[in-house]
Amino acid sequence: MSIDLNSIMQDKRSGSSRIIKNTLELLKEVKEDERVKICKKIVNTHESMSGLKFIMESVKSNPRIDVLIDKIEEMNSKTSENLEKIVEGKIVTIISRSHIVERGLIRAKKINVLESKPEKEGIDTAKWLEEQEKEVEVYYDAFMGYAVKNCEVVVVGADSLLKTGFINKTGTLSLALTAKYLSKEFYVAAPSYKFIGKDVEFDKNFEFIDKEFVTAFIWEGGIGNDVPD
User: Fold this and answer.
1) What is each CA distance from 183 to 84, 87, 145, 227, in whole angstroms?
2) Gap between the Cα atoms of 37 and 26, Å rounded
3) Could you tell me the residue ranges of all domains in the chain?
4) Which element (helix H / strand E) includes 73?
5) How far apart are CA 105 and CA 134, in angstroms?
6) Quick check: 80 and 103 in contact, CB under 8 A?
7) Full strand arrangement of the beta sheet holding 160-162
8) pLDDT tens digit sequence for 148-197
9) What is the CATH architecture of 78-224?
C-alpha cells in the first residue's frame, strides 16, 4: 500500500514508531522545501507522539532523510534488543500496539494481549506475534486483571516521554494500576527520541502515567529507573 499524507494523518491503529517510519518514507518522496510543512500537519494530527516533533526539528537542520531513518531504526532496534533481556522465557502482558515492543517479545514464553478498544489495535499485534510463531492469548480489556494475574511482567510502549512519566494509549493507566496492585513488574519500552520533557497535548484516546508506577524504562541506551532524555 502506498504511503500518503492522508493515510498517515488518519492512522489510528499503528504505534507511533510505525507512524514515524511512514512519515520518513513520505518525506523521502517530497521536495526538501515541503518537508517541514508536511511534518507540521502530521504533528498536529498526532499531538501525543513527540517523536514526530523530533523528526520535524531534525529535517529543519539536516536534509538527509536517509541518515535520519538509519538513526531512528538503530534506536528502535537497540530498544527492542534491551527489552528481549527482560522478557526472555517469561509470560508478558501488553496493551495497544507498539512495533518496538512487538519486536522485543520474540524471546518471550507467551504474550497476553489486551484487545485495546476502541480501535482494537491489540488484535493486529496478536496477529503479528502469531505470524512469528509466538504463543498468544487475546483478552478483552475488561479482563485486564486476569491477563496481569496470569503473567510475570507487563510491558508497554510510549507515545511521549516526560520528566514525570509518559503518555500512551488510554487503558495504560489502568494496566499500570493493576500491575501495582498485583505486584507485577511494569516496564516502558521507548527510545529516547520520544522524550519531550514537558507537557504535551493529547486527546481522550491517550493518557498520562506517572513514573512512580514504572519498574524501569527500556531505551536504546539500556534499562533504568529514570525517563531517558
Assistant:
1) 21, 16, 12, 21
2) 12
3) 5-71, 78-224
4) helix 65-87
5) 9
6) yes
7) 160-162, 165-169, 206-210
8) 999 999 999 999 999 999 999 999 999 999 999 999 999 999 999 999 86
9) 3-Layer(aba) Sandwich (3.40)
